[in-house]
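User: Can you help me understand a structure? I only have the sequence.
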Amino acid sequence: MKVISYNVNGIRAALKKDFMDWLSFANPDIICFQESKAQKDQIDIDSFEKAGYYSYWHSAVKKGYSGVGIATKKKPNRIAFGCGMEDYDNEGRIIRADFDEFSVVSTYVPSASNMERLDFKLKFCDDLLDHILELQKKVPNLIISGDFNICHKETDIHDPVRLKSVSGFLPVEREWMTQFIEKCKLVDTFRFFNSQRDQYSWWSYRQNARAKNKGWRIDYHFVTQTLKKKLTRALILKEAMHSDHCPVLVELEE
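Assistant: Let's start by predicting it. Here is the structure, written out as tokens:
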């Protein structure tokens, strides 16, 4: 089973860049989206259906902002739009698809351009941790995919010294991610297979950062320890160029 997570930085813009041709080639069983930046009636659902996918979208109240989605070849037993917390649900931060043996969560952790948004981000992170712990009581097998806007380790960012005081690599954010992994008993699937440096999923549009590979690894697939034995592969798909992010992939035995 192939699962992809992709912050598309606007699904409508991605669709204009031959996204559906790429999707057909990549051929995931499930793809999780972040930063769709569109209301449901603005998304070309028909194109996904023609490609063989059921697609579900949780949009922000504010138009052209945030938003998450899941497209899947197999129809889910249930879709949970949001997490039941109004502040986050109004921003379209979490969507979940439940299947027979597991559930997939697509999440978009807020970025933080100022102290007020950093406080909001950290509160979201703490509430996400609690949400996942509570969810595990009912659904032990979880795949948690998304843009976390946090680099966990020094190997996940191109300049750990200079950027240590920038949101996305702050000590408090990195410590939260450590706690998230430990308390929720999760596996960072890419690092399960790959310990190399210079493996990134987001690059600034400025200063030719992508060509120079001055990037950040902020997009993840986490799985619960119950699924660890099923992991077969995890990759960063740098060739996809629809966004300032690139997709990340994990494969599991069914």
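Now, to help you interpret it: The CA atoms of residues 133 and 183 lie 8 Å apart. The helical segments are 11-15, 19-26, 45-50, 86-89, 115-136, 171-183, 189-193. Let me know which part you'd like to focus on.
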